[in-house]
Amino acid sequence: MDILPILATLRRHKVTATLLILQIALTCAIVCNAVFLITQRLHRMDMPSGVAEHELVHLRLADIGRRDDEKARTAEDLALLRQIPGVTEVASVNQVPFGNSSNNSGIKLDPKQSQSTLNMTTYFGENLAQAFGVQLVSGRMLQPDDYMDFDAVVHAAQAGDLKHLPSVIVITQALAERLWPGQSALGKQIYLGSEVPLRVVGVVRGLVRPSIWDDAMAQYTGILPVRVFDGNYILRTAPGERDRVLKAAIAALKKSDPHRVVIAQHIWDDMRSDFFRQDRAMAVLLVGVCIALLVVTALGIVGLGSFWVAQRRRQIGVRRALGATRANILHYFQTENFLLATIGIGLGMVLAYGINLFLMQHYELPRLPAIYFPVGAVALWLIGQVAVLGPALRAAAVPPVVATRSV
Amino acid sequence: MLVYYLDLAVRSLRRNRVLTVLMVLALALGIGASITTLTVLRLLSGDPLPQKSARLFYPQLDPSPKNSAIDSNGRLPRTMGYVDAMNLLHAHRATRQAVMALTQAKIMPPQAHAHPFFSDGVMTTADFFAMFDAGFQYGSGWSATDDEGGSQVVVIASFLNDKLFDGADSVGRMVRLNDHDFRVVGVLKPWAPQPRFYTLGLGGDHYGDGDAVFLPLKAARALKMGPQDTECYQAVDDFTHLETAPCQWLGLWVELDDSSAVASYRRFLDGYVKEQVALGRFQRTDSSLLDLMGWLRDQHVVPDDVRLQVYLAFGFLLICVVNTVGLLLAKCLRRSQEIGVRRALGATRREIFVQFMVEASIVGLAGGALGLAFAELGLFGIRHQPAQYAHLAHLDPAMFAFTFVVALVASLIAGLLPAWRACLLAPAPQLKAM
User: 3-state DSSP helix/strand/coil percent for chain B, to nearest 5?
Assistant: First the structure.
């Protein structure tokens, strides 16, 4: 196909052609970045939790009056919950992955350090790892004789009595790799705050934090051998049994004491979807905007294409009369669109890169991967070709006889 | 003449119905998206107390030792410890001052068989209500004597009064909070400034309904009611005696009437910090006194997502305007002959220009009207989004007017180029071509 005559024609439609190029460029830039943002969100929503996601039920209760028998009460509750048919594991825990409320602590590798090495979240609760379905990678899980009661630990800490404080900890692979890259974490020592030494006895594949303010630190987690009695319960059961187990659990607990308030009750999957709902909403919005943008641009191409065809009816007629085939005319408009799209895409890529730089500076986004450029280009070329097909076909249908008419 | 232009414009637009619909639709989509996101941004970055915000200030200081475990990135702690908050409160250097922390209060309704429920509460001191312009429906706030004496009194929000006492004057009645009786001294009028500036740093939601109960700090603490958020700069194991712990959990707000009062308070704060350093309590001498809007900005109260959405929407609007310019221009170039005839019959360039601008404004106004509908639809969608501020998203009259200004300006910009081109066309060649 001869490009020069097309360029010559376009030179006579500078302004309209420029506008179309500009529109394609802007669309290309925004869509590339929007799609990148969407994949970022989707990736975040897929964040691994390390727990048996489809098998968990979470329950949180509060008493109406003050009670001083939380321990006996918790033991009683756990026994009741364990009796529910279908329940395989139960635990009384201090916090739940993606549950938003969390206990965190600075840790040090050397007690003399003035600054903490990093901040990790601390999970407490007997049988917690088993109930969550956390997978052991090396070492051992915490054993019943490692465990101490929360209030006893608090008293010991106040008295500075190391003997009655926990001395072992299970940590996640991510944390182990961050603290001792390339080495086995087993047997290594960390310090909670500046005084409590803890020996790593086990490493688990993962256990995500309840609240995440930095995705890179989402898996910095330790499980401590402390029993808690806060009415925060985790039940593990078969996926299909969860609704029934949740209802049965509430009924059983309310029956044992009707004066209790259920503060929270979840099938654990819902906690994940709640946790990421903001990301999901944003992703949906971005998808909507991308579609709208592409449609507007496609319609713009259709509109402008139709005008140009109508405007050049006589020229087309003359060309046809001079021997051009319908295919020639069709290809002419297709090539014209391809040229405009190419310039637009080239400009759009530069713009996309600029927007990405801006976002990187202000919103801590990573660099736009190079793959977006060819994919974006192909997408816009295709949209351009589809959009111009209608007007181009209409142009090809112009009969040669038009050349002989005056208007 | 204008009527004639309108008639011409409508004829011209009707000649290419599909194209007209396309232009209007594209413009409307862009305007709808922009207005929706702008409304949300305005809502989120709005002034919670417009009549008062310039006079409200948030002092900050830093009691943590130089080798503190908290990595604060050079930022001052968001809250204060009890001792400092009380020292500054009792100094009475501002017109009004109040300390506050958020708490969860368990409320037992007076009705028989009713279930207890948890509500947001504020533990604060006497000046809170007058300082934040929280008006009373019944009764009044408590006094400084109540603060010191630890009186078990409570001010309740109007929605809680409706729930507990069916909206009746409940002053003097008892409310059972965390298993203790508190005497109602006042019922607020509906009061929920957005964003909830006073909860920033205290662990509460930034937007949404106001708090249900307001309690004197001392009385609430005597009953072991805990703050929502606590930050400690040294290891602490006992969270029940927060008053003496190396922890920060209180926000202090002060009301200062003019710039000289602000300057003098700044000097006072600076002096206080230096004095504490001299006493050996503090190691750092930094302090700050931000005004309300400055504090909101400092705390990045507007989510990043919302700003991104605004950029996105304006990018979208830009594309829609470019689209409309292109289409209008193409349309006008096809009408060179019509323009030639009109010019030959005596129309001036000015008249041609006005004619095309009228046509563009019709597209703009239609786009604006439709854009308004889209914005309403968008806000309806926002209201069903999972965000704290979702139910607050409504189109206000200022935004309504702004829609049309945006639409008109967008379309006039879109019309400018075609109209300019049209009025420049020389009539003779066009007539010849006929």
Answer: 50, 15, 35
Task: Compute the nearest-CA separation of B160 from chain A (Å).
Answer: 19
The pTM (predicted TM-score) of the whole model is 0.77
Query: What integer pLDDT is reported at residue B238 of this predicted model?
Result: 65
How far does the CA of residue B180 sit from the closest CA of chain A (Å)? 10
The whole-number average pLDDT for the span B196-222 is 85
- Least CA distance to B229: which residue of chain A? A101
Q: At residue A64, does pLDDT exceed 80? A: no
Mind listing the pLDDT tens digit for each residue in A290-326? 898 898 889 888 888 888 888 888 888 998 989 889 9
DSSP A52: -
Nearest to A26 among B71, B237, B315 (CB): B315
Domain encompassing residue B310: 2-45+303-433
Among B274, B298, B322, identify where a domain stops: B298
Chain A residues lying within 8 Å of B374, measured CB to CB? none
B294 shares a domain with B308: no
pLDDT at residue B69 is higher than 60: no
- Residues in A closer than 8 angstroms to B325, CB to CB, are 19
Q: What are phi and psi of A301, to 5 degrees?
A: -65, -40
- Examine the fold and report which residue of B241, B272, B298 is the final residue of a domain before the chain moves on: B298
Distance CA B303, CA B319 (A): 25
What count of residues does chain A have?
407
Cβ B326–A19 below 8 Å, yes or no? yes
Q: What is the ipTM of this complex?
A: 0.77
Shared-domain flag, residues B137 and B223 = yes
Across the interface, whether the CB atoms of B326 and A34 are under 8 A apart is answered no
Q: Is residue A341 classed as helix, strand or coil in its secondary structure? A: helix
| Total number of domains constituting chain B | 2
B238 contacts A154? CB cut-off 8 A: yes
Q: Where are the beta strands (DSSP E) in A93-208?
A: 104-108, 118-124, 136-139, 148-149, 168-172, 189-192, 196-204
Is the same domain home to B272 and B336?
A: no
Measured CA to CA, the distance from residue A103 to residue A221 in angstroms comes to 10
pLDDT at A406: 58
- Which SS3 state, helix, strand or coil, does residue A113 take? coil
- A194 vs A172, higher pLDDT: A172
How confident is the prediction for chain B on average, in pLDDT?
84
Closest residue in B to A20 (Cα–Cα): B326
In this structure, are B160 and B41 located in the same domain? no
| B144 and B276 assigned to the same domain | yes
Q: How far is CA B14 from the centre of its chain?
A: 43
Which of A84-88, B40-44, B232-236 is least confident? Answer: B232-236
Residues B60 and B41 both lie in one domain: no
pLDDT tens digits, one per residue of A359-385: 888 877 888 888 888 888 999 999 999
| Interchain CB distance below 8 Å, A154 and B237 | yes
- For position A342, what pLDDT does the model report? 94
